[in-house]
Amino acid sequence: MSALRCMSVNTWRGGVRNPDGTPADRxxxxxxxxxxxxxxxxxxxxxxxxxxxxxxLLQEVQGRxxxxxxxxSFAPGRSTGLLYDPDAMDLKEWETVTGAxxxxxxxxxxxxxxxxxxxxxxxVVAHMSHQSLPLAIHQASxxxxxxxxxxxxxxxxxxxxxxxAMIFGDINAPRLSHPAAPAEPRPEDLPAANLxxxxxxxxxxxxxxxxxxxxxxxxxxxxxxxxxxDRTGDPQEQAHLLASTGHGGFSVDRVYVTESVVPATSGLExxxxxxxxxxLYWEVDPAxxxxxxxxxxxx
Length: 299
What we know:
The protein is an alpha+beta fold. The protein has a single domain (4-287), classed as Endonuclease/exonuclease/phosphatase (Deoxyribonuclease I, Chain A, 4-Layer Sandwich). It has 7 helices and 14 strands. The protein has helices at 27-35, 52-65, 133-151, 195-198, 211-218, 224-231, 235-241; strands at residues 4-10, 41-45, 68-69, 81-84, 90-96, 109-114, 121-127, 165-170, 199-200, 207-208, 221-223, 253-258, 265-271, 279-284. Strands 3-4-2-1-14-13 form a 6-stranded mixed sheet, covered by helices on one side. Strands 5-6-7-8-12-11 form a 6-stranded mixed sheet. A two-stranded antiparallel ribbon has the order 9-10. α3 packs parallel to α5 and α6 (224-231) packs antiparallel against α7 (235-241). The longest helix has 19 residues, at 133-151. The protein is globular, with a radius of gyration of 18 Å. The two termini are 30 Å apart. GO terms for molecular function: catalytic activity. This is Endonuclease/exonuclease/phosphatase domain-containing protein.
């Protein structure tokens, strides 16, 4: 079984518009930059328009990338979506977020993949609130719950529970601090709109606010960049792993994995694409997923 090549891509207005809403055809160049990595799994954000017009843009993307869309993960007006290589992994289930929660979760649903093991791998592509920190905390809590529960849903009695799951995408909130991380921006360096969900405290005494990252940490998710930074003593590599991925000076694009998936992950890289965010690339070797590292089982 070979490693799965994974990517998280903020497409920046779908690759078809400028910030002012005028047309901008970045889609061919965007797909070329993604395809150059040969991914088996791609989670996208800001793909609101790909499902419109009977999925015309989504069909173009599938053709250019040679990947299959999880069709129900794309919907008009929804930011996130998922594409995968059916020769490398088999989609067994897609659980769409429904009801009153659907407009507020920061993700469209949870995919469950068969990767040739006794247990599944669940995947959530997230694009969390950049306007409300309390809402982003709720979104992170919901994603944590669904990713873990869907991962082990189909297991028969007595089968291993691995809770093998990944949550990745544009988290928008600051990550946990790390001594090797580049300096974070000062409040006076950011637009006033950004201060509501990245800082706390009164004017002049602001501090970086990290409750979203703290929730993931408390719920036993591993921030892959922090994990790899702790494993290397090379300051240059640490700075690269922890560098900002988008405008604004914070590393908002992240990959979180459950305990059992940590030994299976490697190779986190920032990939330059025609977007205002760098894409993330990493690998997961399913054969190295270790269910004995799961510390909390759902019963």
